[in-house]
Design goal:
Oligomer: single chain
Helix content: 25-40%
Protein name: Methylmalonyl-CoA carboxyltransferase
Radius of gyration: 26 Å
Strand content: 15-25%
Organism: Tumebacillus lacus
Pfam families: Carboxyl_trans
Number of helices: 20
Length: 513
């Protein structure tokens, strides 16, 4: 028995060494950690348990018969984050460049299946050169098995992808289906076709970093949700994100103790200007109403005219959506519509209440927006809010105009509670535009059109530029003192804690993708 145990330990040591000391040193020289070092940072100390370490490839072509691939180029298993179980896989770039083959994919698929059966999040640390070409179509089939599980387990367990090196070709589609993507600045890239292929086909010359680096994928394409300067920072942000999420779709999000307060904030009134055309940073409002000002913003550098993220109120996780007047006056465009709607659906999947801070002039006008499909993209917001059954609360800070007002969680599409500050304006459009249309003839026929126009704008503002008309029609549940916003939200969340709402039976809806 002792001899057998020694043999077992030797086999494990060989597998844990991956591609060997030389390749590990090369990984470190690039500023990158190994798969196992990353797992040590990600997971609670001493909790990682490996699964299927002895799986081996069975390829024989192109010299593969004698090629060793310790651990098959991927480390899989489970561990704990903040004392809660998670399943993980980490591709090992020191073994065949982390290239995915048939058995490599099998290890990942088995890990995902266990995660789904046991209702726990799955986290993938991606660092791979792509498909293992020597295995031919078997490697492509392996990708298919992973994509299938990403899809059917979507909305069942949280799925998080961390890009820690190259992620090219078909490999990018697995992270794209998951809930959140993290990237490391300077060392991770994502693209379907690399720079060399693009230059060959189109003649365009571009570096890997400028094509699909963290900056591009976070601020231009919106593919990535988070990025950080180092692998350690990224992995710690993954741990932070999980603190807001339930283990699965059947659980409530985890509550964290929060010190009692009266919910009254004297300083919040100084953040939002009364003048509707003056800009401010809506994140300052959010941080005043959430616990300890702790707000984890999602996609902070993409579609900056909208702000989304996770926070807590009285210890309970909430999803926050807000217009950002600092950019494009907080108007909605194609990118912000996609950003908002996907976040709504994620929160609804995992029982996270939604709070919307509204200050919107409308959908952004323009030929490019129309031709690129603002109708279809804007409709996603309407669909996502209408479909969601979690508690849904809206606070109208200032402007709530036109179709954008309806789309951003109005009572008509299922909001449970709608509050408005005294500065709120619920109207078809702003006073200036409305006066030009409603009083066009009177202004044109008057002796002094400019004076008449100014008077009509003032008349329209007096009648409609306030929250009380909408409140009189039941479209706003209450007009509140801004200083009591946090307290009102605490009460609303308590009121809606046991909300139960069903939808007509169906296979699934047809969101305008």
């Amino acid at each position: 028995m002792e001899q057998k145990i020694l043999e077992l330990e030797e086999r494990r040591r060989k597998i844990e060494l991956g591609g060997g000391d030389k390749r590990i040193a090369a990984q470190h020289d690039k500023g990158k950690l190994t798969a196992r070092e990353r797992l040590e940072i990600l997971l609670d100390e001493g909790t990682f348990r490996e699964l299927n370490p002895f799986i081996e490839h069975r390829a024989t072509h192109f010299g593969m018969a004698d090629a060793e691939a310790p651990g098959e180029g991927v480390v899989t298993g489970w561990g704990k984050i903040n004392s809660r179980i998670v399943y993980v896989f980490a591709q090992d770039f020191t073994v065949f460049g982390g290239a995915l083959g048939e058995m490599h994919a099998l290890k990942i698929a088995k890990c995902m299946d266990l995660a789904a059966k046991n209702g726990a999040p799955v986290i993938g640390l991606n660092d791979s050169g792509g498909a293992r070409i020597q295995e031919g179509v078997a490697s492509l089939d392996g990708y298919g098995h992973i994509f299938y599980r990403n899809s059917i387990y979507s909305g069942v367990i949280p799925q998080i992808s961390v890009i820690m090196g190259p992620c090219a070709g078909g490999a990018v589609y697995s992270p794209a289906i998951t809930d959140f993507i993290f990237m490391v600045e300077g060392t991770s890239q994502m693209f379907i076709t690399g720079p060399k292929v693009i230059e060959t086909v189109t003649g365009e010359s571009i570096s890997s970093e400028n094509l699909g680096g963290a900056r591009v994928q976070q601020s231009v394409s919106g593919v990535a949700h988070f990025s950080a300067k180092s692998e350690e920072e990224v992995l710690n942000e993954v741990r932070r994100l999980l603190s807001f999420l339930p283990q699965n779709n059947m659980e409530e999000p985890p509550r964290i103790y929060c010190k009692e307060d009266n919910g009254y904030d004297e300083e919040i009134v100084d953040i939002v200007p009364v003048e509707p055309t003056k800009a401010y940073d809506v994140r300052d409002v959010i941080k005043r109403v959430v616990d300890n000002g702790d707000f984890m913003e999602v996609q902070p550098n993409f579609a900056k005219n909208a702000v989304i993220g996770l926070a807590r109120i009285e210890g309970h996780p909430v999803g926050l959506i807000a217009n950002q007047p600092k950019f494009m006056a907080g108007g909605l465009d194609i990118d912000s519509s996609d950003k908002i709607s996907r976040f709504i659906r994620f929160c609804d999947c995992f029982n996270i209440p939604l709070i919307t801070f509204e200050d919107v002039t409308g959908f952004i006008p323009g030929v490019m927006q129309e031709h690129r499909g603002i109708i279809r993209h804007g409709a996603k917001i309407l669909y996502a809010y209408s479909e969601a059954t979690v508690p849904k609360i809206t606070v109208i800070l200032r402007k709530a105009f036109g179709g954008a007002y309806v789309a951003l969680n109005s009572k008509a599409i299922g909001a449970d509670l709608v509050y408005a500050w005294p500065t709120g304006e619920v109207a078809v459009m702003g006073a200036e535009g409305a006066a030009n249309i409603v009083f066009a003839k009177e202004i044109a026929d008057s002796e002094n059109p400019a004076e008449t126009r100014a008077a009509k704008i003032a008349e329209y503002k007096e009648k409609f530029s306030n929250p009380y008309v909408a409140a009189g029609l039941g479209m706003v549940d209450d007009v509140i003192d801004p200083r009591e916003t946090r307290q009102k939200l605490k009460e609303a969340l308590e009121l809606l804690r046991n909300k139960r709402e069903t939808r007509p039976p169906k296979k699934h809806g047809n969101i305008p993708l």
